[in-house]
Amino acid sequence: MQTCNAMKFLRIAAVPVISIIIGVPALVSAAAQAKPSTAPAAPPALPAVQLQSYTAQDQSVSAGVPSGWKVISAAGGSINMSGPQGETINFGDVFVAHDGPFQLGQKGPGIAVMTMPSSAKLTDKLVMFLQQEQSLAGKPAVQIKFIYATPLQMPANMGQCGMFAVDFSGTAPPAKGAGIFCSLPPDTAQLFKIVLLLGTAPSAIAAQTVPTVAAVYNSYKVAPGWVQKMLSPYTPTAAASPGGGAGLAAETQMYLRAMANNQRVIDHGFTCADAGILGNGSNWETPRECGGWAPNF
């Protein structure tokens, strides 16, 4: 029962982040693209949550804030808030990393919050980043167990993105989280941006947090032009100039289209995750398209 409750939180928290960051009003559904033999059941309707609208001082981002929650920061297209029981919502956060061997607690050069190999697996990058955050805050390294992780298919020149759901331990209290993590290509200075959208809640209240997280995600809006700034290379290329904006805009649109097309992957992934969680875990009950032996959905 605890695992099923956690998945309800993770389903609601992870799926909408694609539409949040790219600003696409309607994504292509899995049914329209894949047409499985049996469509997965729609998640139950969630109770309404009252939100108070909040707009960043720089006008780059807005979102609804639940009663009892407070905004920690809001600028540059990102907004972070915390709840009264240890819940957190952080989306649109953009960090700069340096391409090189990882050393826990080491910052730089320059603006980089850390050094890690840009060629590493995306899940390894996420672990390194989260552990680096803990280290820089003077906290013990968090232990991360992946409940679910799947890459999102991107054009080769656009970097890596993936959806994940994790258990956090080594924290007080233990927590669950879900979101999207992207690692963009290194620029001419071997700096690369990483983009994180993450919702977390203490494990004991993850299920009860579902409606609130869903409502806040659905209210999140990035002002026109800010997504392009968030996804552009940190170090402009020599060819970049006031007249080169059209090329960057075209690259950004390609990125957005690729992310939108991944809705099928997201829906399919959660269908498979549900199959493993709601059944007894046996390969005989897991569909072939999810790595088991049972007929596909």
Would you spell out the secondary-structure blueprint of this structure?
Elements: H1 2-14, H2 17-22, H3 30-34, E1 51-55, E2 61-66, E3 70-75, E4 78-82, E5 88-99, E6 114-116, H4 122-136, E7 143-152, E8 160-169, E9 175-183, E10 191-202, H5 206-219, E11 221-222, H6 226-231, H7 245-261, H8 263-278
Parallel strand pairs: 5-6
Antiparallel strand pairs: 1-2, 2-11, 3-4, 4-5, 5-10, 7-8, 8-9, 9-10
Helix pairs in contact: 1-5, 1-8
Molecular structure report:
Helix 1 packs parallel to helix 5 (206-219) and helix 1 packs antiparallel against helix 8. This protein has helices at residues 2-14, 17-22, 30-34, 122-136, 206-219, 226-231, 245-261, 263-278; strands at 51-55, 61-66, 70-75, 78-82, 88-99, 114-116, 143-152, 160-169, 175-183, 191-202, 221-222. With 297 residues, the chain is of the alpha+beta class. It is 31% helix and 27% strand. It has one domain (2-232, 248-290). The strands form 2 sheets. Strands 3, 4, 5, 6, 7, 8, 9 and 10 form an 8-stranded mixed β-sheet that branches. A 3-stranded antiparallel β-sheet has the order 1-2-11. The chain is built from 8 helices and 11 strands. The longest helix is centred in the C-terminal third of the chain and has 17 residues, at 245-261.
